[in-house]
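Lab notes, practical 5.
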Amino acid sequence: MIKIICDSMSDVPKEIVEKFNIHVLPARVSIEGKEYFDGVDLTSEEFFKILRESNGLPKTSQVTYAQFKEAFDLYIDNYDEILYVGGSSRASGTYQSAILASRDVEGKGTIYPVDTYSFSAGGGVFVIKACMLAEEGKSAKEIVEILENLKGKERVFLTVDDLKYLKMGGRISGLKATVGTLLNIKPIITLKDGLADHEGQIRGKKKSITAVFNKAVEGIDDLSDRIIIYGGGDIPEDIRILEEKVLSTNCKNIYRVSPGLGITSNTGPGIVGLAVL
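Output from the prediction step:
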């Protein structure tokens, strides 16, 4: 019997968390002097509102050794295998905390960690894939091997409606943010080699959302057995545009998520994007 654990760096649909009883370990976020656990003390919608009203970016903290140790200890004697599907080790020290904690746990079960080298919806598709494989009867060792072979094959693309958050985070200059806003230029961001990377830019919101979708499905002739996670922040009209495109595909495994505090702390709430695996 396998127990699946992940961290809140990955955006996993609620129905998947509930169906497979996934233990999600939350990161912490501090904003305006208050600290919250991602998805526990604060919903995404509440966080988006705080972000809109704040003059600064929040600070995030990785999931700690103690959190992992407590979780591993909880399940080590009740499950044969514990599979931890972690967010990118390049983006956070969370995965390293899990490795250190796993070495200090004693019990009947065996812990199998895997670094997805992705996060947000990119990490989410790996968690879903792990759940599907477990449901098929694959062992944790087999699942890790399959996920390792899939790393780097996921497609993750997103865009944002407001450049000020990227400016506050030092990801673009003040001049680029001002010019981009005046010209209605939207960045296309991808996840590559475990980190966010600039893929390009498009003038116009609808065109940028179309570009995000097209890049994610480019070259894939049949999406029927793929996994797609899409969603966005507090911009329902933008999400609707992307949703129409996603639902027009023949993909059988489509999920919508509200992005977690980890990615929106850097992009702001006006994010829309998708991941395909």
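Observations recorded by the TA: The first helix runs from residue 14 to 19. The CA atoms of residues 22 and 267 lie 27 Å apart.
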